[in-house]
Amino acid sequence: MVPKRISAPVQRGLILAAALGLCPQSGAAGQDEDLDLIPDSVSSAQPAPPPRAGKSGNSFRFFFEDEAQANALRRGTVLPLPAEYLPGWSNRFTFYGRADIKLAPSLSLTLADRVNHLSDANSEFPSGKVQNDLNEAYLSWNAGRENYLDAGRINLKSGVAIGFNPVDYFRKNSVSLRTSEDPLVLRENRLGTVMARAQSLLPFGSLTLAAAPEISDKLGRFITDKTSFALSLQRTNAYPRYLAKISSSYKGISSDLLYYSERPGTSFGADISRSLGDRFVVYGEWSGGRRHSLTADALVYDAKLYGVDALKYDYAVPGDSRRRFRSQAAAGFSFTESENKRSTFVEFHYNEAGMADGDWKNWFLAGQVQKLLNFPELAPVYAQVNTALWSIRDYAQRSMEPVTRRQLFIRNQWQEAFLKKLDLTNLLQLNTDDSSFFLQSSAKYNLSDQLVWNLTLYFYSGTERSEYGSVNKWNAAKTGLAYLF
Prior knowledge:
The structure is a single chain. This protein has 485 residues and is α+β, with helices and mostly antiparallel strands. It has 8 helices and 19 strands. It has an 18-stranded antiparallel β-barrel. Strand 9 (241-250) and strand 10 form a beta hairpin. The chain is globular. The chain starts with 8 loop residues before the first helix and ends with a strand. The model is unreliable at 1-49 (pLDDT under 50).
């Protein structure tokens, strides 16, 4: 419970600032490791090309891609995102490769890796940052006709929704580089978790069991270092995790029941989907378990990162900081127009751990402390307030869950729109409480079988005290070329 002696949101902000003012790592370099703050400097990634078949059933996928983005800033926001996270321009050059290799009749190897060179207006041209992401690397063994065993770094995905998957329990901290705000792209590009996975086909469906070990965040090791080519396994294997999933299908109804365990508790989940004719599919998923609110989790995570005892400052968190049973849910439908090669998804997302209307008011009030007091000598403390408050929203992105309590999500994809080689994708995220929204519109044009040009536009709209209106970037444009081979 939040102690009664904190009588005003402004006091919460001051105490939070004091807490983070004790942080030994307050420089921009330390923040860059863990604060991919909203909005991101890179955008939509080119999906991997279709596999190229090789001998003995092997397949390979490769592409080069270069994308540049320009940001248009919004002035006079209540709580601006620190300037170092909003460069005027940024550029990403990527090489992606995926290989599925058959080592023996019952044994195969999967490898997926992405090398990025990142630069922006804050880096000295032509220097930048090289970041390598080993997305997947695992062995698969067919232990009989109906039993399979995988071991290695695996991107294990669960759920039937498109915009938010409450039962996708291995999603947390798996997005190393946000190459898009499209959840479908993020699901495919994220880091896998080191685990052992067993799958068995049953008369009524299938059974999946997965176990992931804990890999401590001990520096000086290739597997956990935060250098360009380290594996960063501490992101995906911070604690032991276990999953059991039973899948079934009956008369057009597909469903999953899930049990998930991690320190300090367990969660239960379920999803279901059904086709209604040739055009409609309805679906939903739910997960519930004992946990803190998103804001409390964010403070605990970042306080640990900076070496602060979070228990001393839990009362500074806006909102309910108790650990109790909380639910997450996503429900929606899809509509497919086969004759036009167009699909639309409409979903409602609910995150009981997310920020309610009162939490948002506290967030803005805490951020206004520096404007109300205006003491130049406290500028470093004010900077820590900004970092702390924005880290709550960043933590939601790292967890791949909505930062707000309720959200409407719409995604439309149109292949061969107007022109045979033109594909269009639009997605909308709407905060149903404050009516602010984020819109991403993308176009891809196939200049040839191997060369693809893309253009993406981003828009953040809302009042200055709304989720998306508070982002001090109001729009952005990104364009690039991808060469597939």
